[in-house]
Amino acid sequence: MLRDFLTRLETIHSLSASLRDRLTKDLEILEVKKRDKLLRDGERADYLYVVLKGMLRSYYLRNGVEITSRFMLEYHIVVSVNSFYKRMPGYEFIEAMEDSTLARIHYDTLQKLYTDFIEFNYTARILTEHYFSFTEERLFLLRKQKTEDRYRYFVEQYPELLNRAPLGQIASYLGMNLETLSRIRAKISKRTG
Question: pTM surpassing 0.85?
């Protein structure tokens, strides 16, 4: 599984044999169970994770209600951005939604990799651009789109999540309550059925 992730990195920029060896050494493989928390509100994120198998989500609490902010599937990078990069306590939870296999790297180890392998900075920049784009797209979706359009977009972009994530979490991710999501699904089903 780690080999598959490294191969994916190779599609961005070639990895020298020494960089590949170092990544293999520095990325710790971790098995987590469904509902295990990798990070809790108020903790500092010391690790960046890669999902090798399984699914995670991040969420925060608003008035005691869980609001899902991200779903991370295989080969997604998982990090509480402000907490990890600013070295401060975070405000979100990161939780396994399925039994999962992860690779993780400590903040200090990652910084040393960037120093020791300047070419790896290019790969990191391309990945960062990808995630910035994804974040902007999500913000546009939540702020500008009608609820039905948000759901349609979700179905088109992330069809595998419909079978892997509970509807309540999907609803909170889309910025609506479960009743609204159920109404939209019934309305669409009636039109297509």
Answer: yes
134-157 pLDDT tens trace: 888 878 877 778 889 889 988 988
Spacing of C-alpha 151 from chain mean position: 19
User: Which CA distances in Å does 34 have to 41, 72, 91, 93, 137?
Assistant: 18, 14, 21, 14, 28
**Cα–Cα distance, 68 to 60 (Å, whole number):** 7
φ, ψ at 148 (rounded to 5°) = -65, -40
Close Cβ partners of 155 (under 8 Å, ≥ 6 residues apart)? 162
Indicate the length of the chain as a whole number. Answer: 193
- Taking CA atoms, 190 is separated from 150, 160, 184, 187, in Å, by 18, 22, 10, 5
